[in-house]
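Researcher: Here's the sequence for the chain we discussed earlier.
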Amino acid sequence: MTKVLAVIPVYNHADSLRRVAEGVLAAHPHLLVVDDGSDALASALLEGLPLTVIRHERNRGKGAAIMTAAAWGREAGYSHIITIDADGQHDPAELPKFLEHIDRAPQAFIIGARDFQAAGNVPFSSRFGRRFSEFWMFLQTTLRVSDMQSGYRAYPLPALAGLTLRDSRYSFEVEVLVKAAWAGFELMEIPVRVHYPKASERVSHFKALSDNLRITALNTRLTIRALIPVPFRQMSWDKNDRVSVRRPLKSLRLLMEDHSTAANLALSTLAPIIVCCLPILGFQSFSILFLIAFLKLNRLWALAVGHACLPPLMPAFCIEVGHYLNHGVWLTDISWQTLGREAFQRFWDWSVGAVTGGPALGLTLALLVYLAAALTGRSLRARAASEPAS
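Model: Thanks. This is the structure I predict for it:
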């Protein structure tokens, strides 16, 4: 069962805070305000309204305020928080949109994508930042998220608690989405209205130099991590719902119940295996992410297969196959001589194995996955057809 808490992180928005809070309360009765060290106490500005205020004694950043709200919400029994900015740019009347989508997809991170076409006075920095963040998000995850910088969002609290997050200021809102995608959670966008006052009336605490440097440093870290051939830790509220090659039949059943196709799952098996066989050490993970987007593979299954095939498993397999094809015998002497001094020969063995043994193994496993998924799909359809008569 979902229980949702609306959250307003605030830092020195005295002129708009009460109006935003009243708008939120008109749409949703549960509201928490996190005062991130404002000069004027939020509790005084909101006196008489049925809400809770938490205060940071010093300014710690928007990300820290959101995490404070998340911790408070979990202790109070809430399953989700919806954050809305205190500057009045978001319309609180659109909160029911988020509630509706939370009910449909309780594990999703939901972003309110701001409609810049219908808005006036949109700052150039917002338009540029939006495109800039969209590019880096695609590079790091191969997912298209049009508005990484929107502060109008719904966070599932159990999922948020499981992510390892380092940034506490504006860059938090980029980091949390990238790491949620890596962990296997759905990122969902819904259109929302946005209002920007004239430049002379606008209050922004974004610091062009320091905050852009933080975002640049964050994107550098995230991109490097995306290239490292180490699996991302997959998460789920329910361990029984996790997709893993360790439980292939159960995982295929979950994916077929989610309207996957046997052909797509087979392709999502073949492509990662071929990539992991290639002698492109350090670029396998990124290549798999690219193929997921380019070929529209099943993301969860392709990542699970790719993680199971990352070095040293597939390179060792290809070297053995290539050595046998080149020399007629298996490589049994694993030593400094064979792996160090004869590194060029092993690279050639790897290359030969990658273009022969890799596709052969991939096609074999893809065929097995296709047959298992097809049989699972047939079973599910038969069960669905019999339910109305039972």
